[in-house]
Amino acid sequence: MRASTVAFASARSSQGPVACYSLGMRDHPAALDDPGVAVSGLEVRRFRREDEAEVLELVGTVLYPEDFPDFPGYWRWKHYENPFGKSFGLVALAGEKVVAARLFMHWQLCAGGQLLRVGRAVDAAVHPGWRRQGLFQKLTLAQLEPMRADGLVLTFNTPNAASSAGYRKMGWVDLGRLPLRVKVVRPLTAFPVLLSGRRAEVPQPRTESGVVPNAAGRVDNSQVLALLREPAVRSLVEGAGTAQNVDPPPGSAAFRLRTALSPAYLEWHYGRNCWYQYAAAFVSKREAGALVIGRVRHRRGLREALVTEIVASEARHSRALVAEAMTQLARDTQADYLAVAALGQAPGLRDGFVPIGRRGAGVALRVLGPNLPIDPTVWCNWAAGIGDFELF
After folding, report:
1. DSSP state of 141
2. 320: nearest Cα among 309, 328, 331
3. What letter does residue 198 receive in the DSSP assignment?
4. Burial zone of 203 (CB within 10 Å; 0-12 exposed, 13-18 middle, 19+ buried)
5. Nearest in space to 115 (alpha carbons), one of 21, 16, 15, 238
């Protein structure tokens, strides 16, 4: 494959700042139908929409689709409705049958005043009859050059314990796990359970990503969607998105890596998500505001509100507003405790959140392009949280 030069998306244009949430990218990278992967007895080509039924069946052999109500709907929401662009990848065929698939999502990060187009390695599956032939690795590596050619500057994912070693062998950098902080809201209920160490009373559905969908049925996040569409909330999110790419001060949260914020992204991720239960709280004071979004689930018989998104104005009293929004989120969800796995604006001890080690999502990445505005291979250059890394 030929070498390529990566074109970076600048945060500025002759008309002024470019919003981090400007979308409109190609459905697929500039991948050839023949990606140059040599596998005896197999044809390898780009994933096409007409492959969906076979790939869904194949992915279902490893991702437990019974845990996802309306698995085809979930797939389409994730891979086709994503505001950053439709997913892309490769499939391997034995005759006309798909026996392996490797899918990536388009994503956008902001850092150092620049908008960065990146990929997220997500779904991968190999038919049992074709395993132990290196198909996972071959298909993953074969997608790297097409991503470079299309201007993507890195790819990241949240590998599980079984796949982490494989990614390291392919050149991925293991960032480690996000720090986790917990604030007990109902001590009389929570402390006996937390101190007992007893196993979970509510069985958790199985997913390789560790993300727990609602196994009982589709969930309703219409209240979250309605809140995100309120003018004051949209204005807050748009302002935070602009702050990511208009000369953010080095070392500030806006300067470091996190998902490019926009109303379209938050509405898709949280408001139109029918598989994970979310709740949101918004508070404002004069021109300042704070938005907190959390995923509601049961762990060890307790009700947890895992904070997935914190968006706050750049104001002197924004910390107090975030704390107030956290309190409202806990009250609205009747949570026994709040959990935060985040960098950047994450609350700390002074806010009542106790660190309990690096127990959040584990993240790995592969750099694809030169001259990145910030080194993505170290945690100190990230201001992301669990919401940026939730693997749908």
Report:
1. H
2. 328
3. P
4. exposed
5. 21
Asked whether residue 70 is domain-assigned, the answer is: yes
**What is the Cα–Cα distance from 118 to 155, expressed in whole angstroms?**
6
Cβ atoms of 346 and 183 closer than 8 Å: no
Q: Tens digits of per-residue pLDDT, 367-392? A: 998 889 999 999 999 999 899 998 66
Q: Among residues 144, 177, 210, which one ends one of the domains?
A: 177
Is 367 inside a domain boundary? no
Whether residue 346 sits in one domain with residue 219:
yes
Domain with 126 in it: 12-177
64 and 184, same structural domain? no
Of 202 and 295, more confident: 295
Instruction: Specify which residues 115 forms β-bridges with.
Output: 9, 110
Are 271 and 224 contacting, i.e. CB atoms less than 8 angstroms apart? yes
Tokens representing 178?
Answer: 């996000």
C-alpha to C-alpha distance for 148 and 329, rounded to whole angstroms? 41
Strand order in the sheet with 288-299: 278-285, 288-299, 302-312, 337-341, 180-184, 354-355
Please give the average per-residue pLDDT across 109-129, as a whole number.
Answer: 93
Please tell me whether residues 356 and 220 are part of one structural domain.
yes
- Separation CA 262–CA 239 (nearest Å): 9
Look at residue 158 and give its three-state secondary structure.
coil
Judgement on whether residues 170 and 188 belong to the same structural domain of the protein:
no
C-alpha 320/C-alpha 336 separation (Å) is: 21
- The mean pLDDT of the chain is 82
Give pLDDT tens digits for 203-244.
343 333 334 444 445 889 999 999 999 999 999 999 999 988
CA distance 330 to 279: 9
Do 124 and 162 contact (CB within 8 A), yes or no?
A: no
